[in-house]
Fold this protein.
Amino acid sequence: MRKIAAVAAAFALLALALAGCSMIEVDKAMDDAEAVAIVNGEVVTKAQARGVYYSYMSQLYDFYVAYGLDPAGIKEMTLDALIEERLLSQKAAELGLDAFDEAEEAELLSEAEALFEDYVTEYAPEYGKGETDEEIRESTAKALEGAGVTAEALAGELRRDRVRARLTEEVVKDVEISEEELSEAYEQALIDDAETYKDHYAFETAMNKEDNIVSWIPEGYRLTRHILFPFGEAEREALDRLANEIADLEDRIDELEYSLEFEEAGEEAGEAEEGEDTGDEAPPAEDGDEAIFAEIERLRGAIAAAEGEILAIEDAFLVSLAETLEAIGERIEGGEDFGALIEEFGGDPQMAIEPARSRGVYVCAESAAYENGYAPAAMAILNIGEVSAPTVTKAGVYLIKYEADAASGAVGLDAIREGMLAELLEAKKSKTYSDAKQAWLDGSDIQRFPDRVTLE
């Protein structure tokens, strides 16, 4: 993404330069060489800042304006990025991490040439000219090169990326996680997860991702796997349409009932002001109220009709699956592996990937991550190993197998040790490198000239 943004910025700056023929002429070379920052005696020039500044302006200017922030802050961000880049280059050179042998340079150039060809393909529809593929390629390549995007320039970016990676590795090479750190992190995770996963949706979402580390399992969960027969496109469109119709009808009923409540509240307030309380029965509803009541009944009838259509679609879909469901039932009775049946019939992509594929999904009576109907059917299965009757939900028809009860409470450290160590190590390395960069910045002689950062 960074390289693509740089290419776009280069094209935009080329356009600005071509349009500049009507501007007042200045000594361009002198202007470009002006310092926008000086880092330990090394100058960062106005020309070097231009592309970075344009890229930030393109991405952030609307955000700054929308929230009433000073766009001058974008100039400061530009200088922050350029100063950090120059400082890291200095530090890498100091540590001897910026040297590449011939084989490494050749590899970089080969990768850069391939990247340049990717850009040629990407920008050909906009900048390519000519009749043949070769003419279009050549004209696009010239446009890129005219904007300063060459294989050599891209090799320079790749080289800087490699140097940064070497520098990072050098700084964090001795970082480790102690048993004490792991134990402290585990104890804190237990406290945090016990609180976080009071929210069923949060827990179920977390458990459906293989790389998530969860240290606390709430009570009341079981594990299930399922075969899903999703509705076809025609059924899905009809069901969505009917659901939207019902929602609109219910909204209209709410509006009408609110109007009646508002009118009744107004009448009661008027009676209270007059101080009248005759004890007589309320007068009959006015004609307008009768019309509202009649409309509400009509709308309720329309809802019932729509719900009947939904049931008819669901019933027809079940009938269409009858033979398949019967055959699956016989194979389950015959002891066939449910996982193999999922692979053969399952229409839920989640069941084809880990961790759901081998372990199943977590479900409880209050599950929020599944369609209406799934959790009740899953929780109604009496015994581990049994399979539910065909269950209709918004997604389609499910056959749900009760795989196991989930042990609630703390997950043992050994079960999540590897994942926790990886997370802690990554976080500690990141902080170590960040702290090192800040120390280098604090110990450097840096001068900033944000007013000199411009697009011209």
Observations:
- The beta strands are 35-39, 42-45, 216-217, 222-230, 361-363, 391-392, 396-405, 409-410, 446-448.
- The radius of gyration is 34 Å.
